[in-house]
Amino acid sequence: MPWFGLGVFKSKEGEEVQNAVRTAIEYGYRSIDTAALYGNEEGVGTAIRESGVAREELFITTKVWNSDQGYESTLDAFHLSLKKLQLEYVDLYLVHWPVKGKYTETWRALEKLYKDGLVKAIGVSNFQPHHLDDILKSGEIVPAVNQVEYHPLLQQKAVHEYCKSHGIQMEAWSPLAQGQLLSDPVLEDIAKKHGKTVAQVILRWDLQNEVVTIPKSVTPERIKSNSEIFDFALDASDMERIAGLNKDQRVGADPDNFDF
What we know:
The chain is α/β, with parallel strands linked by helices. It has a single domain (6-179, 210-217), classed as TIM Barrel. 40% of the residues lie in helices and 14% in strands. It contains 10 helices and 8 strands. Keywords: NADP, Oxidoreductase. Belongs to the aldo/keto reductase family.
């Protein structure tokens, strides 16, 4: 799995998402993260097909939405996603949220898809340690990935430690906190020191914390800029200053208290 990719949450179906994915692939992105909820799987699939890049060089993630959770309904939802994406397999399929009373059955369906060769890897999103405990107790396969809200304001240390200790790769959604961090003075100071943007500093921080990151953008300049994070490194003092920004502050829903 690439350490860096493009998220397409809120990228509109049609030209907008197609252009974003095409641009990202042109700039060297090889990982694209979508979901049934986003309503843009068809556009992602079209852009992949028209990119000219071999399928095996790309890493495509999608997710089963909450209303489709359960065993049979998850299998049906997956096949619909696969049809929309116009693919023969998906690289990573995730349980989007831990829907109470359903996510263990949903996981059983993902295990079947994995065993059938339709998915190269399976994982979860927005799972807390106690949700993961349920999966590990009832399932046969350890989730490959846990995709969670992760940024300097919400550093999820307990979740990260749990994932590390169980061989689960953590992945960040909303790594830039929906823009809330772009004028933070600490991050601006670190960015100036390295001749980089605040966004690039945050994304580099993700990588140095061994967290996969998938920033969302539909702007070509920003898609290009976001990817330019492999030519510098944050030092120990930078990492320590960013660690001090944690406020356990979410921009999204709480996985233990959501109603959708």
